[in-house]
Amino acid sequence: MNENSRLHASSNLRNTLLSEIGIGISANSILLLFHILKFFGGHRPKPTDLPIGLLALIHLLMLLVMAVSATDIFISWQGWDDITCKFLVYLYRVFRGLSLCTTSLLSAFQAIILSPRSSCLAKFKQKSPYHMSRALLLLSIFYMFISSHLLVSIIATPNLTLNNFMFVTRSCSILPMSYLMRSTFSTLLALREAFLISLMALSNGYMLTLLCRHKKLSGHLHSTSLSPKASPEIQASRTILLLLSFFVLMSILDSIISCSRTMFLDDSTFYYIQLFIVHIYATVSPFVFMSTEKHVGNLLRFMFKGIINV
User: Fold this and answer.
1) How far is residue 18's CA from residue 67's CA, in Å, rounded to a whole number?
2) Which tens digits make up the pLDDT trace of 18-47?
3) Which one is the CATH code of 17-219+228-309: 2.30.38.10, 1.20.1070.10, 3.50.20.10, 1.20.1560.10?
């Protein structure tokens, strides 16, 4: 690929990424606003409203930090100092970790809600929001600890010709770490990933089993001329299963791009593709959640009506 073609491809990837961030910020803002209005409007909340609203808030903050970082990735200017680099990169990594934690706990929470009364999980239904809050707090503290090395390894790099530095933005890079430090933090991250993905896998398998059982029961009810309409819990479980499958797919693509980026010596094109991949879930998930809420349409019509009147 010649230099002109490379610059054109990078420009297209940049515009695509910035559009994705803008759409994601707008969608998560609407979803979060909907849950806030629903709470203060006196509507009876569903069990999943809290984790979904929290996930929208996390994704909104993550994309806002990414939008700020994008100004230093794509735009040449004075640059940031060490403190700004450390703060923004660390904050962004924490929000990414919280997105994974909240998604995993949401899958477990939905599995508890879907469980029948005869199940051993039924006793956790009333206390599950409380336990989820505690689990998310503990996981957040753990992830903030294992990401603390970024406060040391992230530095401002005004000289872009430095070797062995991993590019983050035009102003920020990651210092090469010692083998012991790299192994320690990689092991902690691998343990976190293994635990949360195993939790998702178990929850998904359990929900899939219950949904298959419900499908057979629905077929029997339909054959006896009774309504086979799925309950809200069943519909929510299908939505979450769809999102989790999509999340796992994006995680696999992220890993492939990360390996490719390492093999091709930190090529900027692979970096832009990786940034696009890791934000697809945060951009798509609010649309999936809003598609299951009939009141969101009323909120959007009210907002657009207000804008037109102004």
Assistant:
1) 8
2) 999 999 999 999 999 888 887 777 667 777
3) 1.20.1070.10
